[in-house]
Specification:
311 residues; alpha/beta; Rossmann fold; Dihydrodipicolinate Reductase, domain 2; 9-stranded mixed beta sheet; 10 helices; 17 strands; 32% helix; globular
Length: 311
Amino acid sequence: MTDPLRVAVIGCGGIARDIYLPLLDVHDGATVCACVDASETVRERMCARFPNATHLASADEIDADACDCALVLTPVRESIDAHYEPVLALMRAGVPTLCEKPLSADFARAQEMVATAEASGTLLMMSVNRRFAPVYRRAYEHFAGHTIEMCAAEKSGSGGIYREPITNSLHLLDAVRWLCGEVAEVRGWCVSEGEIDLGASVSMRFVGGALGSYIMSRAAGRWIERMVLHGGGRTAIIDAPHAVETIADGQRVAWCPDQDRWQMPEPQRWGFAAQLDHFFACVRGDGQPHVPARDALASHRLAEQIRSLRR
């Protein structure tokens, strides 16, 4: 039997607590060997949860020989770019890493992170879990062998967000690229107050000829992630993460991940569980990254193009 992968977790609040740590708690192929967090209170909590792990205040303290891979789950928001330094340290130490999105809110730093990974020959993947989420996968499979000609995507909610297309909408924009191909031209508007983005209305033309739009409002009445795809007599309407409606030649099929079970846990519904399994397979050498770091950087570039339209 293969020994479990030894996983260092950098950043143990927020998404680690809600998504990744529960997955690691029950994963047969991985064990937490190190917990890194700047907060002493959080470290104390992790000591109780993972008593056999090493508990550290900085990623610089990680013993690269004592871990097989790492998850970087630290925050990225105004005045805090907490992915950059841990990822660089892990790449230089040769530790395969899955980094939550974005790699960095600063495009030049994201480029440096990818270049460092490539120079050291170390696996770096960014979380692009929409590519693994059941509703998005269903839409992708619906268009297999057919061309998507039109895409309309929305990511909205309440309250302004720091560099929103990069820090919040990046998953959606990556899914747009995955489904429709590379973007040749971007036009539109992005409304901001300093580094806080409030809304965007953008038109896109893809290299393959498809047309698309992306809208974002931080004045919405509820959280919305939605995508509509058309092409070749087919349509897919995604209401993430709960449902997708597929239509072909007038025949409509409504599907939700829960319909064959009582309730799908959020990490599975959003694709985090499948993505983590994929990352571990790549660490073991049992597969190639579905999304190499340079591909993820192209999604950063698209988000940066949208932010450049801000007024």
